[in-house]
């Protein structure tokens, strides 16, 4: 006998990852005051166990899918499961890469790990949201936690600046998203993602067109969500925030929230406004071009590796938008596969930077990487792999991510967008290869003293590197899962 009725139990199953993450986050907050400063790292291991338990919760979610929870507010389907694995996996790797970093910076605190878990729970809600206000709650859970995490190095001015900029501009983006929800509700009479499409279809049948309020609402929501995925012209905050935030936090920001927000965008644009594709296609097309150009050309002139990768994150949002613009099931599949590959290689790259930056993040210039291939060859090989994957070299996940994205756009006859994306990929080769050249062909820096890589960081980098190679060499299984996830998006 269970104390819960079957319907309530099904709700718990379909929200299992978020429940587990929040329970572990609360447990860490409760335990934190009772644990001595020298043993705070134990809370990090508890958070890591929480992410593993949440992945087990994803299995529970998958077994109970497809279906909805809490009167249709949350949707459990293969699409939600796929994105959950990405965001929880990203959080797990970020936690593993944080242990030594927090010790070196003397900021080993339980609330850090709790905030990571709460942010991940918010991302999970975004991945499965079937209603716009519910999506807003997930967005705020993720955002508020990451606002605090960005400023976690409280004694560093750059970290304080990053947190403040992220909070102020994020608040504006949130306002745009809320106004968009209000306008869509005013035009359609519902905020349910699966019901908006029917309301718009009825509107077209009766009046021959979609109400301008609905289109304006979609535009405002795109502004709010474009901020989270760092799509141009809403990317202005990203370089400063990514540079100023603690580097393991930057690794999380560049992967998890982006994947979760793109998942929500796919549900809104493809499911709710799929019939209005002619209205949003050109907005996505223009944003993709601007995002690639801004990201790549700004990255060309950077000498700070962390800031360079921040602009690289902007450029990759543009490549994802290329697949997004396709407007087909193949496009959704390409977006999901790209997000999986991107999360692995971006987290891996930033975690390498977190280690090499040393205390105070004082070694972030390209010149600081001179001769790394001689002094720390294994770390240099890992970093090279992640950079080459971001570049799109064959046999890496990044190559197939771009290939599938460009192929989806070509199948939809968006030839010029693919041409522009290909040119941008060539431009991006310069700043990635420049770092690799510095590591292997420049004279080693005499004042650099290598530090031992912590076992937890070694484990995280090994997973990220193995995943990057796996997606590049044996992509069939993950691609099939992405295709199943894409197909489930329309099944209501």
Description of the structure:
With 492 residues, the chain is mainly α. It has one domain. 75% of the residues lie in helices and 1% in strands. It has helices at residues 6-14, 16-31, 41-63, 78-96, 99-104, 110-128, 132-150, 157-188, 193-207, 212-228, 238-244, 247-253, 256-272, 277-300, 305-324, 329-356, 372-375, 377-391, 397-411, 415-441, 455-473, 476-488; strands at residues 67-69, 74-76. The chain is globular, with a radius of gyration of 22 Å. The mean pLDDT is 89.
List its salient traits.
492 residues; mainly alpha; two-stranded antiparallel ribbon; 22 helices
Summarize it.
The chain has 22 helices and two strands.
Strand content: under 5%
Q: How many strand elements? A: 2
Q: What's the shape? A: globular
List SSEs in N-to-C order: HHHEEHHHHHHHHHHHHHHHHHHH
Radius of gyration equals: 22 Å
Q: How many individual helices?
A: 22
Major beta sheet summary: 2 strands, antiparallel
Strand order of the largest sheet: 1-2
List the helices and strands and how they pair.
Layout: H1 6-14, H2 16-31, H3 41-63, E1 67-69, E2 74-76, H4 78-96, H5 99-104, H6 110-128, H7 132-150, H8 157-188, H9 193-207, H10 212-228, H11 238-244, H12 247-253, H13 256-272, H14 277-300, H15 305-324, H16 329-356, H17 372-375, H18 377-391, H19 397-411, H20 415-441, H21 455-473, H22 476-488
Helix pairs in contact: 2-3, 2-6, 3-4, 3-6, 4-6, 4-12, 4-13, 4-16, 4-21, 4-22, 6-7, 6-13, 7-8, 8-10, 8-11, 9-13, 10-13, 11-12, 11-15, 12-16, 13-16, 14-15, 14-20, 15-16, 15-19, 15-20, 16-18, 16-19, 16-21, 16-22, 18-20, 18-21, 19-20, 19-21
């Amino acid at each position: 006998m269970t104390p819960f009725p079957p319907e309530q139990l099904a709700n718990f199953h379909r929200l299992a990852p978020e429940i587990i993450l929040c329970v572990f986050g609360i447990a860490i907050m409760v335990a934190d005051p009772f644990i001595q400063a020298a043993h705070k790292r134990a809370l990090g291991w508890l958070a890591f166990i929480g992410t593993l338990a949440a992945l087990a919760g994803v299995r529970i979610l998958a077994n109970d899918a497809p279906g909805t929870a809490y009167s249709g507010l949350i949707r459990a389907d293969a699409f939600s499961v796929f994105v959950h694995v990405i965001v929880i996996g990203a959080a797990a790797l970020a936690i593993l890469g944080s242990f030594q970093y927090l010790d070196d910076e003397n900021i080993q605190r339980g609330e850090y790990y709790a905030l990571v878990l709460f942010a991940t729970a918010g991302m999970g809600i975004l991945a499965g949201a079937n209603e716009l206000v519910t999506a807003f709650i997930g967005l705020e859970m993720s955002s508020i936690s990451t606002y605090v995490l960005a400023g976690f190095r409280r004694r560093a001015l750059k970290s304080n600046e990053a947190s403040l900029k992220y909070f102020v501009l994020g608040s504006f983006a949130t306002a745009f998203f809320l106004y968009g929800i209000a306008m869509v509700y005013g035009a359609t009479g519902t905020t349910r993602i699966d019901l908006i499409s029917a309301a718009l279809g009825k509107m077209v049948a009766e009046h021959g067109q979609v109400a301008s309020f609905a289109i304006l609402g979609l535009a405002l929501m795109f502004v709010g969500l474009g901020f989270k995925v760092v799509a141009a012209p809403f990317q202005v905050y990203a370089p400063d925030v990514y540079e100023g935030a603690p580097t393991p936090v930057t690794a999380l920001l560049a992967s998890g929230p982006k994947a979760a927000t793109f998942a929500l965008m796919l549900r809104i644009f493809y499911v709710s406004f799929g019939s209005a594709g002619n209205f949003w296609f050109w907005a996505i097309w223009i944003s993709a071009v601007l995002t690639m150009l801004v990201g790549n050309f700004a990255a060309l002139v950077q000498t700070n590796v962390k800031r360079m990768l921040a602009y690289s994150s902007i450029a990759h949002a543009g490549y994802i938008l290329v697949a997004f613009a396709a407007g087909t099931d193949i496009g959704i599949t390409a977006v999901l596969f790209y997000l999986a590959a991107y999360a692995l290689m971006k987290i891996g790259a930033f975690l390498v930077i977190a280690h090499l930056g040393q205390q105070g993040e004082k070694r972030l210039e390209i010149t600081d990487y001179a001769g790394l291939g001689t002094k720390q060859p294994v770390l240099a090989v890992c970093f090279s792999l992640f950079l080459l994957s971001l570049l799109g070299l064959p046999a890496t996940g990044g190559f197939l991510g771009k290939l599938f994205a460009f192929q989806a756009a070509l199948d939809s006859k968006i030839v010029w967008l693919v041409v522009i994306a290909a040119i941008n990929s060539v431009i991006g080769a310069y700043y990635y290869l420049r770092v690799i050249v510095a590591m292997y062909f420049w004279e080693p820096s005499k004042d650099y003293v290598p530090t031992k890589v912590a076992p937890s960081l070694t484990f995280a980098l090994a997973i990220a590197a193995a995943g990057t190679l796996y997606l590049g060499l044996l992509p069939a299984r993950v691609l099939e899962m992405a295709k199943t996830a894409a197909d489930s998006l329309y099944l209501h």
